[in-house]
Amino acid sequence: MAEPALQPTPGRRFAVRRIPGFATIAAVSFVLLYAPIATLVAYAFNAGDSIALWEGFSLRWFAVAWGNELVQEATVRSLVVAASASAVATAVATMAALGTTRTAPFPGGMLIYALINQPLMVPEIVTAVALLIVFAMVKIATGYSGLGYLIAAHAAFCVPFAYLPIRARLEGMDLSYETAAADLYATPWQTFRRITLPLMSPGIVAGSMLAFVISLDDVVITEFVKSAGQDTLPTYMLGQLRRAVTPEVNAISTALLAVTVLLLSAFFVLNRQRR
Amino acid sequence: MAGAPAPGRSGEAAARAARIRRNWLLAAPALLLLLLAASGPLLVVVVYSVLEPAEYSGVVWELSGEGWFRVLFHRDIFDETVGLADAHLTIFWRSASISLLTTIITLLLGFPTAYFIATRPPRQRTLWLFLVTIPFWTNLLIRTFAIMEVVRNQGILNSWAMAAGIIETPIQILYTDTAVLIGMVYVYLPLMVLPLYAAMERLDFRLVEAAYDLYASRWRVLTRVIVPLVKPGIVAGSILVFIPSLGAYVTPRVLGGGKNMMISNLIELQFGEGRNWPLGAALSMTLLAFVMLALLFYVRNMSRLERRG
Fold first, then answer.
1. Does B33 touch chain A (CB under 8 A)?
2. How many CB atoms lie within 10 A of CB B287?
């Protein structure tokens, strides 16, 4: 590892910032973080049936996963749920952010903030159990057992993830454009449509992307809320782990991983351009 | 909220009332969604915890303290003698100790890692941080699955140790508490590094330099200057790791293999094979109470640190 550059006092020998051993532990941490994922990805390309014995490179398991009808259905379902939940969560979070930022403290403001962030504090298993109970009652009462429950549940726990980036964006926004628009006789709606909304859009995009990834990743709540035959990709994989594991699960994981890394890179690039 | 606005100041009061109404109306859809599919159902769990369990699943609508009683105690089926529920106590103890160990190990690994990132030149930091963020956003199930492949009998850990001649036969790690602990450390390490880094990035290294100028040793600088200055980050990271560890479901289920349960798995059992919904509800509320206690501890600690700083 390179010695940290000491900008303030060039020529000085003693490295103020260096603590012996820390770089080594950091290296261990990064190896620890990446070695298991690297192994997982590597065996997705294994030609053999094993996830431990390397038998040569092949795309066989990607083809197997791609051709698996259950995987196809679960993928489509995951995407439908994530897209709908993210859309709903982003819409309500945008409105909530407009109502709770750039305003003087008002009665109940803290309560709204606490309620919106509540899904971040309650353990997922508790919410999952609660939804299991309530949705079971609703299912009996209405007879409806479609994807609506999953979308509602996902949308709810995605709200804080959509809300926080939008709120951060709004708080950092310059008020003078909107004041100028109002001075130029724009109606409140015109000001919102032409000034506020475009200015806050990076926050909205970031929030919806976070919500999408969070929904796509969810296991616990989905496992409890889904009706029979409503597996999403993660719950399908969880079910597969009970059986003999083939590199097919590795191939699905690798594909999901690729989607996450792509979305995340886009998120970082968006964030950087903003500054 | 004020009732009818007082005459004279009515314009100002009306404007204020309109603003409050606007804010609440804008927040209403989000609140409605959360009340329907997050906060509201929690109240139903409270109600269910004091009802009578139905024979197969669900509840009988009769008040009963049995659910809460069974969290800690056990009643013999035959002679009705009451004893402590050992199985539950074992699971509580496992949850608490694994969560605590996870927090300590991630802190020991995460502190130097965050420090390392924070002392890189600014342009490099983003890249290192990105490397921590990728595993953080990677599906928890995928990461647990990756660890499963590492620790299994035919996995790389055992095959390498055998190839190196350290062991002769594979050690059974998968489906033990050790596997759960390894998995939890792996899964939650980024959650420790990120808040620690946020605190260290703001660290004023002139203070470190001053300490060295005053002949402090490296160890003293670390324990007396750096650690106290980044304490908010340490507390935040520890809480961020401890709370999800306590409620972990996927990692103990996959790596503990059914018998090395933690609280979440015990809760699931009551809604599945256990068929005791009130007990499951009471256990959920117990878990929630512990999480809230941890959060309270965090908030109090933070406000104290802020007052001092």
1. yes
2. 24
Nearest CA-CA distance, residue B162 and chain A, Å: 14
ipTM of the complex: 0.87
- pLDDT score at B1: 44
Taking an 8 Å cut-off on Cβ atoms, the answer to whether B154 and A106 are in contact is: no
For residue B18, the chain A residues in CB contact (below 8 A) are none
pLDDT, tens digit, 9 for 90 and up, residues A31-86: 999 999 998 999 899 888 877 778 888 888 899 888 899 999 999 999 999 999 99
| Separation CA A235–CA A13 (nearest Å) | 56
Report B:194-213 residues touching A (Cβ under 8 A): 205, 208-209, 212
Only one residue has tokens 């969880």, namely A238
Give yes or no for B280 touching A (CB within 8 A).
yes
pLDDT of residue B2: 45
All residues of chain A having their beta carbon less than 8 Å from the beta carbon of residue B2 are: none
Tokens of B19: 């603003």
- Are A237 and B141 in contact, with CB atoms under 8 Å apart? yes
**C-beta neighbour count of A209 within 10 angstroms:** 20
Q: Say how many CA atoms lie within 13 Å of A114 toward its Cβ.
A: 5
pLDDT at A1: 44
Residue A185 has pLDDT above 80, yes or no: yes
Higher pLDDT: A87 or B294? It is A87
- The pLDDT assigned to B33 comes to 96
Residues B18, B2 contacting (CB under 8 angstroms): no
**B219 C-beta neighbours (distance < 10 Å), count:** 9
Cβ distance of B218 and A96 shorter than 8 Å? no
**Token couple for A247:** 């590199």
Q: How many contacts, defined by CB atoms under 8 Å, are there between A and B?
A: 261
Q: Considering only CA atoms, which of A26, A184, A128, A14 is closest in space to residue B272?
A: A128
Q: Record the tokens describing residue A37, joined without a space.
A: 């994922």
CB neighbours of A192 closer than 8 A, spacing ≥ 6?
A: none
For chain B, which residues score pLDDT lower than 50?
1-5
* B204, closest residue in chain A (CA to CA): A17
Per-residue tokens: B199: 């605190």
Rounded to 5°, the CA angle A125-A238-B272 comes to: 50
Scanning every residue of chain B, which has its alpha carbon at the shortest distance from the alpha carbon of A21?
B112
Around Cβ B78, how many Cβ atoms within 10 Å?
A: 5
Q: pLDDT category, A269, cuts 50, 70, 90?
A: confident
Q: Would you call A99 and B27 a contact, using CB atoms and an 8 Å cutoff?
A: yes
Task: Check residue A208 and report its DSSP letter.
Answer: H
Residue range A89-108, pLDDT digits in tens: 999 999 999 999 888 888 88
Residue ranges of alpha helices (H) inside chain A are: 22-44, 60-67, 69-100, 109-121, 124-142, 148-171, 176-183, 188-191, 197-217, 220-225, 233-241, 247-274
N- to C-terminal Cα separation, chain A: 30
Higher pLDDT residue, B29 or A20? Answer: B29
Q: Given pLDDT bands bounded at 50, 70 and 90, which one contains residue A20?
A: confident
pLDDT at A167: 92
Asked if B264's CB is within 8 angstroms of A132's CB, the reply is: no
**Which of B33, B134, B292 is nearest residue A261 as measured by Cβ atoms?**
B134
